[in-house]
Specification:
The protein has 73 residues and is mainly α. It contains three helices and no strands. The mean pLDDT is 88.
Length: 73
């Protein structure tokens, strides 16, 4: 069976964001399965899309994006 084709995305994140990714991956991992930071990012993308599809306020996400912690450099 052929592998799924995936697209690559490179982003610049702060040390704090990297630490959050690492901690989240560690917390989601189990002795049977280690979760990668890439998997955490993919999960977050799916969760945000699902939330927005279920009527979650776009303004809540916009407010997060406009905070100092998320701004692109």
């Amino acid at each position: 069976m052929p592998k799924k084709e995936r697209k690559r995305l490179q982003v610049v994140i702060s040390e704090e964001q990297d630490a959050l990714l690492t901690r989240t991956a560690y917390e989601l991992s189990s002795p049977e399965r280690l979760i990668s930071k890439s998997e955490v990012v993919r999960l977050a993308i799916e969760k945000i899309a699902k939330d927005l599809g279920e009527g979650e306020s776009i303004e809540d996400y916009r407010a997060i994006l406009e905070s100092e912690d998320i701004i692109d450099e």
